[in-house]
Amino acid sequence: MASTEELAEAMYAMVKEYHGKRNLKAMDLIKAMKEKFGDADKAECKKAIRVLIDGGRCTYSYVGGSYIVLHPDNPDAKK
Question: Are 30 and 43 in contact (CB under 8 A)?
Answer without folding.
Answer: no
